[in-house]
Queue: 2 jobs
Job 1
Amino acid sequence: MDYFEIVGKNHLEGNIVVSGAKNAVLPIMAASILNNSSLKIKNVPTLSDSKTMAAILEGMGSKVSFSNNDTINIDNSGLNIPFASYDLVRTMRASFYVLGPLLARFKQAKVSLPGGCAWGPRPVDFHINAFEQLGVKIDLENGYVVADASNIKGGKIHFPKISVGATGNVLMLAVLADGVTVITNAAAEPEIQQLCQMLNNMGADISGIGTNTLTIKGVSSLKNLEEISIIPDRIEAGTFMIATAAVGGKVVLENVNPLHLKEVTKQLMNVGITVIEKNNIIEVHSEGDNIKFSNIETNEYPGFPTDLQAQWMILMCLANGDSTLKENIYFDRFTHILELNRLGCKISLEGSLAKIKGNRNLIGANVMSTDIRASAALIIAALCAEGKTSISRVYHIDRGYDKIEEKLTKLGAQIIRKK
Ligand code: UD1
């Protein structure tokens, strides 16, 4: 199993090009199911998650090929098996995105529940309830959702809590449902905005894009879209911004959308980091010391993203005072705390509020990745620590970060992947 060996304390200097967004490419690959033609997707990050979605499409009869490092070509002319197996879906929650477009196109589908879980703690109940409200008949058989959408029609959906996945899934069904669907408390994340724009370019009629109310007037069919380019990954960019702030140095991020990172930029500036925005470039300058403490919380877009919570936590371990960080999206998303504490951080938890002691001196140690973003926080911590840190289970990071060790090495970090 691959692991990273990192020697800390090197400032980060130079330019890197941010990859396309993982959370945009996955629903867009799923949306290709909506017709039987070919789609070229550009600015695709090289990630195990995009390969998983490709394997799911191939299992349904599509032909998927990767070219030029950042392009996926999907040919859906042979896609005729509306089925997604447990083996693939269990490895990636976003696989569940295929249910909406499969039902829209084939009127029936059989898709494994993600992680094989029931309607339990990482649930898909919002997806299921919304589908049922639109007239989909759903049975649960041996861990699979078996669904029939022969009698669907538009309707009113209100999500109890904003959900990126449920919004995307319902959108991909509602575009081809008879009548009008109105989703309230819908996700406004840039990745959902790009999905809506893609669907409209295929002939769908979605309004309210970028707000929390989406109105979808169903159409009878969608036309082919030849090509789409994925928006920049705001979470990858934010991770590099926070890494530069924590380690110190001067980094120029190319291929970013500063508008998508407004809250992250604001919070970095609040703690004393210099951030300069120029069109599709962000520059970050930091001495790597004299970082101010902060009290912030994660929220849905345009709030501070939960996907940068772990990375912000390590930054606050280095701050000149004690901080708090409240997690409002995933109340239990804190597996990184124990690992960060092994490196000398002092973080405690009260419910979903992390209390972070500042002014910490970090010392390298052996630590373990537990999820994509927790791994990114461990890398940042290792880059700030005295001596050598070994991070195991880097397959987590390979799910969501495109060649992170190559990008960091280019910036002067000492990071090696070992087997
Ligand atoms: C997406 C992102 C993930 C990000 C998350 C929140 C992708 C591929 N992944 O995940 O990186 O961390 O948004 O920004 O885009 N919930 C329910 N029932 C449901 C669905 C969600 O209770 O049926 C809850 C979740 O447990 C969570 C909250 O709603 O507390 C938001 O989750 P959601 O936005 O759905 O996350 P994902 O779409 O899975």
Note: The two ends are 6 Å apart (CA to CA).
Job 2
Amino acid sequence: MNKDKVYIETYGCQMNFSDTEIVASLLKAGGFDIIDKIDDADIILLNTCSVRDNAEKKIHQRLMHLKQYKKRKNKLVVGVIGCMAERMQEKLIEEEDIVKIVVGPDEYRLIPQLINQAIGGQKGIAVELSTVETYDDITPLRTEGISAFISIMRGCNNFCTYCIVPYTRGRDRSREIATIINEVKDLAQQGIKEITLLGQNVNSYTANHKGQNIDFPELIARFAEVAPEIRFRFTTSHPKDISDKLIETIAANDNICNHIHLAMQSGSTRVLEMMKRKYTYEHFLGRIQKIKELIPDCALSTDIIAGFPGETIDDHKQTLQAVRDIRYDGAFMFKYSPREGTKSYDMEDDVDEKEKLRRLNQIIEMQNNIALELNDAEIGKTQEVLVEGSSKRSRDDMMGRTGTNKVVVFPNNPPCKIGDLVKVKIIRTTSATLIGKRI
Ligand code: SAH
Ligand code: SF4
Ligand code: F3S
């Protein structure tokens, strides 16, 4: 029998990319083929993000665009899964007549069944959130490469006032340690060289193991020991949970990458309070100082929101000052986007669009200049680079990343292969890339 072919398109954060691998695995077990060419698809799934209005707009546009595929192949089934499915629920089916199934992040086990019903002509929706689902027993169908994601926890209990994630992904829950360790061991055996541990708040990980409570620093220390040849990364950490113990653990293990992503959101304690971030700017700065003290070459990245309700020029200046003082290697910077159902949706969105954009651009400009200066400071240093492939520009050059997550391009001489750890001396920089040569 010909198997139905599923094409999955993923939007949003790394959790979504990791979930797509779980969905692909469930579909394969359910008798479907997973393909990477949309033209051949019998089923198209969009794994979606709701975090800002733009993210959802993109999906509405994509659904419009998919109508041409439906015209060509009448029995095509289109489904929306992920955070937007959870947020919009039956409204998605009502508003978008091309959509036949809607499945939220905790109901992926039902996808094969719902697709089969949709092929039979029946629309389907599954958006129940769970307090326990972690897909512990599912081995993700990973795309080939040297890096892999492992989700170690799901959900979020923090309810920052602007954020939709606790509503789309439900409550915080951690996976059992034994299943994660097995996954790490399997990946090591398969020759994986880099693992990123994922969770909305990875550092609130906690699980009971043989009567003992294991927290995130203990978990990651164990991995570093079980698979010393693998580089470990993790994302994202909440500033209120970044303990000395975690920083010390990173400092003590060579194979835990010296890169910490810590979302600041704002440099003003007043705004942080309105955001319910549960830390002051002083606390945040204290954590950054501790990181810089214990791991001097640690790369730092962050998220910043410009134009939160009630943000004054003075608050904005404090954010600019924070960016100037902390000197992040990288940042994701956003305009505040009101999300229906969140607490801040009821606050007056009083910074007008033009002003939000002006503030955002000021932050971006300052941050970009700092990132360039920090890249320039790498010139002359020797970095350990994990080779990911050939460079986009030239096949004679290879490309890889440092532990601090910077992209390095260098001539393939002496020749190396994907997955090698090589030493590269940085000789110059372009806007976002370090250029070097093997030593
Ligand atoms: N759990 C992660 C964040 C996940 S969402 C953490 O707390 O670090 C990723 C980023 O999107 C957030 O850090 C925030 O900067 C941004 N974001 C979330 N909701 C937003 C909104 N309504 N408007 C603008 N940016 C938002
Ligand atoms: Fe959203 Fe805050 Fe949870 Fe991050 S910690 S996912 S910003 S509610
Ligand atoms: Fe988006 Fe959901 Fe991730 S809202 S950022 S895909 S958790």
Note: The longest strand covers residues 382-390.
